């Protein structure tokens, strides 16, 4: 059988064809006979060895033919035979291949055996893969999962371990020198491709992730490349697999590295790069250049190239040039990222440092240029990655110093990028530049500039010493003799002379002196000769002169003579002078390098400082990435002492109020790192360092930032970060016991102590004596901070008697400040707050305080009257007294409303608990166990009998109990009310009348004493009665507190009430100073907050002053106070609300701003009803001040989120703004309505508004109103239903379409609706347009008929419907009172007010949470929105 040749077929069917001299399959074994035939083949193998394949090839080929139709046991058995044969073949071939000359027959026979075995081996592997894929497909269809599926895979005998064993066998066989079997020794391509096919198949499967499998695969491929010339085919196949299979990227990269290092294939990687470039280019050509490279293939290739460059940077450095054209392509941004990443990797590893050759330096610059240019790439992902590449290069020190400035500038420009990813990467790059800067650890710009200026001055001095300038006197002398020198040289320059003996022997040291001497002696020719002789010492200069023409040579010699003459004479020898100059040169070079370094440092610091405002703005970004990176940057900038970053660090504090937890945590982490972390291990040193940092921070914070810092301090104290050592340092700084502590440091230390004490009151409690002795007796700032420090004691819920020393010290300090200091209000406010928060009887101290202040005012008034003819009042003291009056009234209200009421409720709760406890004890006593215990059954029977008898008794008395409970409850309630009135009446004669309800007087009583006074009969109350008693008690307490506020604080015969006439007089008096009026207004409105009666009396005066006063601060205070009064007494302030609306159109900007803020607050908190007056707010949307307009727009945006609130007032807004009497400019009207209409987002609301606005056309008589309505209709976004509404109501506005403004709006409406709309909407728009054209056609016909009648002289017919008289429009009046500032008269209704005949809709139909809330209103109400203005004006009652 060795007389044939086995040809490896491309298709298995080729072996069935008979060719001369070639092997062909004669018989295909049937599947049912295969097992027996395989057994025959096994027996033949055992007898003759590997030669058996020559006889039994057809049997194994039958497995390939039948393929997946066979069972697994048949396929596995055949493949096991092939594995065993392949392994034995290695042993069989070893002695044959070692022979030097192989016999031709032996070679042919063994070559056929190798081909047959390898063919069957690889093809049965392929068959097993196909069988496994078919079985997996069946499993997916049948839904086999879990352990059963795994068992099936193991049963098939083709697991990962089996595949790994097959590849090992293949590799073992290929290790033999098989090419010797060929003549010439070169294997055909079919054999190589057949052997390599299992390797490529493994690369496409997940098995290649196994490191062992991957190493075996590339071991086989390496052998094929080295011994079988498979390199080109391998490249092509690997690139194909790479493009198609994503998970093969890393294994192929590792395999290429393996081929490079183990097989010495150093060019394989670059060849892969070229092959990838060609594959991508051919892919672009196949796609016609339109959308070219497939994204998946480009992504895989890019990832492979980047990973390969990380492993083989040296080999890939020159291969990158092949891919550079793809940087200009817009096809795949992933490929551009990969190429740029390759450049970054090569620069970082291979092209960094100082020892680069010229070629490497050029290549590095080329790569850096590409990276620099693509910082402006069109893809945000590329820009993001490039910025990250630059950050890596800078971190590794691979960016040349000359390029850093340009890169930094472009990175700063990327802070304005639209993509959040790019902004985040730009901040990271700036932070890396800051951290890895080559200049200094401290980049404070002012300090660097100062150092640069100093070094520049030193450098200039050195340069002057090195190159001294000409002597001014000698310059003047030269100017006088210059013409003679020129004339002499010109005449004798051509005379040939020989060297004189004296010149030839002269040294270079005295030649300059000789030249100067000859010029002074006016021997110019001799000086010329000496210069010409000296020229020989410098041959290059002589050659340069010889190339000049005569005139230039003349200037040359004159210049030399001049320079020698005007330079000061040398006092040292030339040799010594040269040594000095060399030393100066060295110093100059050192200073120049220092100056250059400082200049770069200043420039770097300046660029960072310029970028800081942009990063600061990103702190308030909505993107969390921007905020977190900005926080990290400012943390880094703080360590480098960047001055401009201090503002950003302060702004970071405001993020502690952010609702985003990540932002809050980032800020807390940053501030902990900046201010609490210290490298000093000693406790005292660490405490001092932390305190010094916090002092610098607190010294530059405003009030808002200080509140945020307070939040951080609270968390620090809770976590124990603020140690007692740090607190001790702050106290020492406050007392100035530490050297170098300034007043500012002392104030800052005290402010930090205030923050700490608020979180930990014991800090203040332990140092009360220090506060009294040093804080309350120091300057004004220290007193204010000390009062705040004392105020922190309120958190301990402990009260002190009025005789306590701290109240005495505070009283004395307060009175001293009242009389002698320039400031007073802040300290007085904190002091009064402290008194009411901590004192047992605050009213006693405040009464004493007011009396003493009033006495001092009287004393000062008498003193002024004695000194002046006309009496005068100390205005400043009166201002302070009025402030204290108002603040005491407010604190008294807070004290009663919170502290006293809470104490009363606490006592009620204690009573309820006592009653419940007594009731429980009573029940326990009723069911007490007898002294002598009987049997359990007897005890149980007795219990049941008692329960039954009790039940019967309760049934017999139930009716009587129900009847008597109600009467007893009424009597108890009446008794409690009578008792409360008696207590209140008995205490009415005291000053401030609050001592009888103070917390301390009641708090000192024990619970037992209170419970002992309770009648024992209450212990028998039921649970229902107990709960009722608690609720009634709470109501009684609240009513009692309210009555005390009404009568006993600012009521008649009370201490504070005595000063109300003074306040009213100052508020209404035009002679009072603005400051006094403002103070009186503040105090009086606080009095109004306490009592409803005072509020009701003062509202008229308040509104009168608001309307007539020109004092802006006073009016602002009144507007703010009105908002406070509305929150407390909404029913009283409601009739006066329209006065606040009037201030929206005030001339003063501050008044408008304040009114918008207050009304926005009241409306959004539903304290003011939204009525037609909301149109006045709408006018502010187009206010000339942008801040007012912005606040108003924000208000309407928030209002639109509150159900149907905005939708319900839209008709009122449109009606009011389009009223001719209001005369709103049309352009302003359109700006307002464009914004407000954009806030209507619900389709149902838009549909209802469209119908309502169409109905308004019927009642509008002015052309301006038509235009306004049409413009509003053009602003809506239309759907099918709203368009149908518009078409259905065409009759309402068809007679108005002749107006150009109306028709223009409808044209805009139709054009905007047709854009990007569905066909149904376009059909409706076309229908609307057709109907509008019909209306115009009908109108033109009627006008034509009318014209013909006019020509014939016929009278036009009367209209069928008589013209409706224009409806009268009532003028809005603030009230029915003759004086607009009088309260509205609720007793009398004017006869001119017409009663509405419309039925009142049920209340349930007026809900605001329904989209159709206003759709069911009566037509008459809708028609009243637009009324024709009339000249007749009537008054109307304002609700």
Question: If you had to describe this structure to a student in words, what would you say it looks like?
Answer:
- There is one protein chain.
- The protein has 63 helices and no strands.
- It is mainly α and 1439 residues long.
- It is extended and about 145 Å long.
Question: Gist?
Answer:
By secondary structure, the protein is mostly helical. The chain contains 63 helices and no strands.
Supply the key terms.
1439 residues; mainly alpha
Outline type: extended
β-strand percent reads: under 5%
The description of the largest β-sheet is: none
Q: Outline the low-pLDDT stretches.
A: 144-150, 288-293, 929-1028, 1355-1439
Gap between N and C termini, in Å?
120 Å
Gyration radius over CA: 51 Å
Name the structural class: mainly alpha
Residue-averaged pLDDT: 79
Instruction: Give me the number of helical elements.
Output: 63
């Amino acid at each position: 059988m060795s007389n044939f040749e086995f040809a490896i077929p491309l298709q298995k069917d080729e072996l069935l064809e008979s060719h001369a001299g070639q092997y062909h399959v004669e018989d295909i074994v049937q599947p049912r006979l295969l097992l027996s035939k395989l057994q025959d083949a096994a027996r033949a193998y055992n007898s003759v060895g590997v030669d058996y394949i020559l006889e039994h090839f057809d049997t194994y080929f039958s497995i390939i033919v039948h393929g997946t139709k066979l069972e697994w046991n048949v396929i596995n058995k055949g493949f096991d035979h092939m594995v065993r044969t392949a392994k034995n073949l290695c042993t069989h071939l070893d002695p044959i291949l070692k022979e030097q000359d192989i016999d031709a027959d032996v070679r042919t026979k063994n070559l056929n055996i190798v081909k047959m075995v390898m063919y069957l081996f690889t093809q049965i592997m392929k068959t097993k893969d196909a069988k496994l894929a078919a079985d997996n497909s069946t499993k997916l269809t049948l839904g086999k999962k879990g352990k059963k599926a795994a068992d099936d895979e193991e049963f098939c005998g083709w697991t990962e371990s089996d595949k790994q064993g097959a590849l090992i066998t293949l590799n073992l066989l290929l290790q033999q020198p098989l090419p010797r079997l060929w003549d010439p020794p070169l294997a055909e391509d079919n054999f190589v491709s057949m052997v390599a096919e299992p390797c490529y198949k493994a690369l496409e499967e997940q098995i290649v992730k196994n490191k062992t499998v991957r190493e075996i695969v590339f071991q086989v491929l390496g052998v094929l490349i080295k011994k079988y010339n498979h390199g080109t085919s391998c490249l092509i196949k690997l690139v194909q697999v790479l493009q198609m299979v994503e998970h093969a990227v890393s294994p192929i990269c590792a395999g290429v590295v393996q081929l490079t290092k183990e097989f010495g294939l150093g060019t394989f990687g670059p060849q892969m790069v070229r092959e990838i470039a060609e594959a991508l280019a051919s892919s672009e050509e196949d796609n016609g250049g339109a959308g070219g490279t497939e994204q998946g293939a480009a992504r895989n290739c890019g990832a492979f190239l980047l990973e390969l460059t990380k492993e083989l940077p040296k080999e890939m450095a020159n291969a990158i040039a092949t891919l550079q054209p793809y940087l200009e392509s817009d096809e795949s941004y992933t490929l551009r990222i990969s190429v740029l990443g390759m450049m970054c990797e090569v620069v970082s590893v291979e092209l960094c440092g100082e020892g680069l050759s010229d070629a490497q330096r050029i290549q590095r610059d080329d790569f850096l240029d590409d990276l620099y240019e693509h910082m402006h790439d069109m893809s945000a992902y590329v820009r993001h990655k490039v910025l990250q590449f630059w950050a890596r290069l800078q971190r590794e020190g691979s960016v040349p110093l000359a390029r850093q400035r340009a890169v930094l500038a472009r990175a700063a420009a990327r802070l304005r990028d639209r993509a959040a990813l790019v902004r985040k990467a730009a901040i990271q790059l700036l932070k890396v530049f800051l951290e890895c800067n080559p200049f200094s650890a401290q980049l404070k710009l002012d300090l660097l500039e100062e150092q640069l200026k100093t070094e520049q001055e030193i450098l200039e001095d050195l340069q002057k010493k090195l190159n001294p300038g000409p002597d001014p006197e000698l310059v003047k002398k030269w100017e006088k003799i210059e013409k003679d020198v020129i004339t002499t040289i010109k005449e004798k320059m051509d005379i040939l002379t020989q060297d004189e003996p004296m010149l030839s022997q002269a040294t270079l040291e005295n030649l300059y002196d000789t030249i100067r001497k000859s010029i002074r002696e006016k021997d110019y020719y001799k000086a010329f000769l000496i210069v010409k002789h000296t020229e020989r010492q410098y041959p290059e200069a002589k050659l340069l002169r010889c190339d000049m023409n005569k005139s230039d040579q003349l200037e040359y010699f004159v210049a030399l003579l001049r320079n020698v003459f005007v330079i000061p004479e040398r006092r040292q020898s030339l040799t010594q002078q040269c040594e000095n100059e060399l030393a100066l040169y060295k110093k100059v070079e050192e200073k120049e390098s220092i100056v250059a370094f400082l200049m770069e440092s200043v420039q770097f610091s300046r660029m960072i400082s310029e970028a800081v405002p942009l990063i600061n703005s990103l702190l308030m970004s909505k993107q969390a990435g921007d905020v977190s990176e900005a926080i990290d940057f400012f943390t880094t900038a703080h360590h480098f002492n960047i001055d401009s970053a201090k503002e950003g660090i302060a702004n970071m504090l405001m993020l502690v109020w952010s609702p985003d937890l990540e932002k809050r945590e980032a800020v807390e982490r940053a501030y902990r790192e900046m201010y609490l972390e210290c490298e000093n291990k000693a406790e005292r040193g660490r405490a001092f360092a932390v305190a010094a940092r916090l002092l610098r921070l607190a010294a530059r914070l405003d009030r808002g930032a200080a509140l945020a810092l307070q939040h951080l301090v609270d968390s620090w104290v809770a976590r124990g970060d603020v140690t007692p050592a740090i607190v001790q340092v702050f106290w020492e700084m406050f007392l100035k016991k530490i050297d170098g502590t300034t007043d500012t440091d002392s104030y800052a230390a005290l402010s930090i102590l205030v923050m700490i004490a608020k979180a930990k009151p014991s800090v203040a409690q332990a140092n009360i004596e220090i506060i009294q002795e040093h804080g309350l007796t120091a300057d004004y700032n220290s007193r204010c901070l000390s009062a705040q420090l004392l105020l922190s004691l309120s958190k301990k819920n402990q009260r002190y008697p009025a005789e306590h020393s701290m109240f005495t010290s505070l009283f004395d300090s307060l009175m001293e400040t009242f009389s002698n200091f320039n400031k007073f209000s802040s300290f007085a406010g904190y002091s009064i707050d402290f008194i009411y928060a901590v004192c047992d009887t605050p009213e006693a101290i405040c009464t004493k305080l007011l009396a003493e202040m009033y006495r001092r005012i009287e004393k000062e008034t008498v003193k002024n009257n004695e000194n002046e003819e006309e009496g005068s009042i100390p205005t400043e003291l009166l201002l302070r007294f009025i402030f204290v009056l108002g603040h005491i009234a407010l604190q008294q209200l807070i004290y009663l409303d919170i502290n006293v009421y809470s104490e009363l409720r606490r006592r009620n709760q204690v009573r309820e608990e006592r009653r419940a406890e007594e009731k429980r004890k009573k029940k326990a006593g009723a069911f007490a166990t007898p002294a002598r215990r009987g049997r359990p059954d007897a005890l149980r029977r007795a219990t049941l009998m008692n329960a039954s008898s009790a039940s019967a008794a309760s049934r017999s008395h139930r009716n009587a109990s129900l009847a008597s409970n109600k009467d007893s409850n009424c009597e108890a309630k009446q008794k409690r009310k009578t008792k409360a009135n008696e207590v209140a009446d008995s205490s009415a004669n005291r000053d401030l009348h609050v001592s009888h309800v103070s917390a301390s007087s009641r708090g000192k009583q024990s619970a037992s004493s209170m419970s002992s006074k309770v009648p024992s009969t209450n212990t028998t109350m039921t649970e229902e009665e107990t709960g009722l008693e608690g609720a009634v008690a709470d109501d009684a307490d609240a009513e009692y507190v309210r009555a005390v506020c009404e009568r006993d604080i600012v009521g008649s015969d009370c201490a504070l009430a005595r000063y109300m006439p003074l306040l009213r007089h100052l508020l209404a008096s035009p002679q009072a100073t603005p400051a006094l009026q403002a103070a009186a207004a503040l105090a009086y409105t606080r009095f109004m907050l306490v009592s409803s009666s005072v509020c009701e009396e003062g509202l008229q005066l308040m509104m009168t002053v608001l309307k007539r006063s020109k004092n802006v601060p006073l009016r602002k205070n009144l507007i703010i106070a009105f908002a406070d009064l509305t929150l407390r007494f909404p029913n009283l302030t409601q009739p006066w609300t329209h006065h606040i609306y009037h201030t929206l159109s005030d001339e003063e900007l501050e008044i408008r701003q304040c009114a918008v803020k207050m009304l926005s607050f009241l409306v959004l908190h539903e304290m003011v009803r939204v009525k037609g007056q909301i149109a006045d707010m709408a006018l502010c949307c187009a206010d000339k001040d942008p801040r007012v307009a912005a606040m108003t727009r924000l208000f309407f945006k928030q209002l639109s989120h509150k159900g149907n609130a905005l939708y319900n007032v839209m008709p009122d807004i449109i009606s009011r703004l389009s009223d001719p009497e209001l005369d709103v400019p049309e352009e302003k009207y359109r700006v307002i309505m464009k914004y407000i209409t954009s806030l209507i987002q619900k389709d149902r609301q838009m549909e209802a508004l469209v119908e309502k606005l169409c109905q308004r056309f019927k009642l509008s008589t002015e052309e301006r109103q038509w235009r306004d309505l049409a413009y509003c209709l053009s602003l809506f976004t239309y759907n099918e239903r709203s368009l149908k509404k518009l078409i259905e109501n065409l009759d309402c506005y068809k007679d108005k379409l002749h107006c150009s403004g109306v028709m223009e709006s409808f044209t805009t409406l139709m054009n905007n609706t047709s854009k990007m709309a569905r066909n149904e909407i376009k059909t409706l728009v076309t229908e609307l347009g057709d109907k509008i054209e019909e209306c115009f056609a009908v109108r033109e016909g009627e006008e034509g008929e009318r014209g013909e009648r006019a020509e014939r002289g016929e009278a036009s017919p009367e209209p069928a419907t008589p013209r409706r008289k224009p409806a009268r429009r009532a003028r809005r009046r603030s009230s029915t009172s003759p004086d607009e500032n009088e309260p509205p008269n609720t007793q009398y209704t004017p006869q001119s007010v017409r009663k509405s005949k419309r039925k009142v809709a049920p209340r349930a139909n007026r809900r605001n949470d329904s989209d159709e809330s206003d759709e069911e209103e009566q037509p008459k109400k809708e028609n009243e929105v637009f009324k024709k203005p009339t000249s007749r004006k009537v008054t109307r009652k304002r609700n």
